[in-house]
Write a structure and sequence with these properties.
This protein is an alpha/beta fold. The chain folds into three domains: about 15-155, P-loop containing nucleotide triphosphate hydrolases (Rossmann fold), CATH 3.40.50.300; about 160-220, Helicase, Ruva Protein, domain 3, CATH 1.10.8; about 225-370, Up-down Bundle (Zinc Finger, Delta Prime, domain 3). The protein has helices spanning about 35-50, 55-60, 70-75, 100-105, 140-150, 160-170, 180-185, 195-205, 215-220, 225-240, 240-255, 260-285, 300-305, 310-315, 320-330, 335-350, 360-370, and strands spanning about 15, 25-30, 60-65, 85-90, 115-120, 125, 130, 150-155, 175, 210-215. The strands form three sheets. The chain has a six-stranded mixed β-sheet with strand order 1-8-2-5-4-3, with helices on both faces. A two-stranded antiparallel ribbon has the order 6-7. Helix 4 (about 100-105) links the parallel strand 4 (about 85-90) and strand 5 (about 115-120). Helix 3 packs parallel to helix 4, helix 4 packs parallel to helix 5 and helix 12 runs antiparallel to helix 16 (about 335-350). It starts with 13 loop residues before the first strand and ends with a helix.
Length: about 375
């Protein structure tokens, strides 16, 4: 008889079983913010716990907004027709009426060993750092599950944890990730798990028979969001490739977003680019950044912003980025970088209407890019 099992190689969930029940769990609560992982786990439990030859009879999916405690408990107590379990899945159980959740909690210990009740929560909604009431299950229900079953918490990876998530996704694809590939993929939003998984899978396919996914594989297949195009724009400016940079500007404004919003975001990133080039030019001259460089002194690190060159040179995983900025910084003199900071200020004032001219945001940005290159 198939029974649900906790397999860490197939799930990134953290199992919280406070009181170990005798035999397989009769109730499993899937919680956390990673909706895709929760859906995958729910389907896996349905498939493994029930006899698939009798799945139409032995599995049932209920909508939490309409389900009742008595109905769910009655259904899960029905004797299965097949050799597996009677499995009831309540989707969005947090949307059940609070009193119904309390009644479910009171009767949850009556779920028979031949049944499995899967409680699937929707993604919690946070306001001021706290989960909004109604977006998580009632405390009584969560406590009841802890006593007789399991809680599987599928949390989205934090930005600092995205490296481990990427490595796991690569392992599931039968590959390893080069450090450069990890750095590129880490620039994607850490909370967009679906995209992270998809991009790793695409890069793995591009790698072919090569057991290691390289930065070139990632560059070849990664989907370009507006921010991705802006990063390309910044690199083109750093290499003083005017035509290429103007091409990226054109791509940005073809996306259909608000022109003023696009220009403002690009301006912020271009300003960051020039500041980084100024910082790395100084570090490069002091031989404290770039290939075969000595580590920067504590006194120098104290002068640099932690979210700028200071953070990059202090993190071995970002050494490839430090090399890139040092190489780009060689394309400019210190005086040229100072002039470009002034050009950024003038463009900012023009976009905000402080400076006269009445040009469109795209024209302002195009003129700025020419001046920066």
């Amino acid at each position: 008889m198939a029974t649900p099992r906790s397999d860490k190689s197939k799930s990134t969930a953290k199992t919280k079983e406070l009181v170990a029940p005798e035999g397989p769990p009769r109730v499993i609560l899937l919680t956390g913010s990673d909706s895709e992982k929760k859906k995958t786990q729910a389907q896996r439990l349905l498939t493994e716990a029930a006899d698939q030859d009798f799945a139409d009879f032995d599995t049932e999916i209920l909508d939490g907004s309409h389900a009742t405690a008595s109905g769910a408990l009655s259904s899960v107590s029905t004797i299965p027709l097949g050799s597996g379990k009677k499995v009831i899945l309540i989707r969005d159980v947090n949307q059940m009426d609070t009193e119904e959740q309390k009644r479910l909690a009171a009767g949850i210990d009556r779920v028979p060993t031949g049944g499995l009740l899967i409680l699937h929560t929707g993604s919690p909604i946070f306001e001021e750092g706290k989960a909004k009431r109604g977006s998580v299950v009632a405390t009584e229900l969560a406590n009841a599950v802890k006593k007789v079953g399991q809680m599987l918490d599928f949390a989205l990876p934090k930005a600092d944890d995205s490296r481990d998530y990427l490595l796991q996704a690569a392992r599931e694809a039968g590959k390893k990730l080069s450090s450069e590939a990890i750095s590129l993929l880490s620039q994607l939003p850490a909370d967009d798990v679906i995209r992270l998984t998809t991009e790793v899978a695409k890069a793995a396919a591009h790698a072919g028979e090569n057991p290691v996914i390289s930065a070139a594989d990632v560059e070849a297949v990664v989907s370009r969001s507006p921010d991705d195009v802006i990063f390309k724009l910044c690199d083109a400016v750093g290499m003083r490739r005017t035509g290429e940079a103007l091409g990226h500007v054109s791509t940005l404004f073809r996306g259909g977003g608000r022109a003023d919003g696009i220009a403002a975001r690009a301006l912020v990133m271009l300003a960051r680019q020039i500041r980084l080039l100024a910082q790395f030019r100084y570090l490069g001259e002091k031989r404290m950044a770039g290939r075969n460089a000595s580590p920067p002194s504590p006194e120098v690190l104290a002068l640099l912003p932690a979210d700028g060159a200071g953070g990059m040179v202090a993190n071995p995983r970002l050494s490839w980025m430090a090399d890139k900025y040092v190489n780009q910084a060689r394309n400019f003199s210190g005086a040229e970088l100072a002039v470009r900071l002034e050009r950024l200020l003038m463009a900012d004032l023009a976009l905000k209407g402080v400076e006269p001219g009445g040009d469109s945001p795209q024209i302002v940005l195009e003129r700025l890019v020419v001046e920066l290159c």
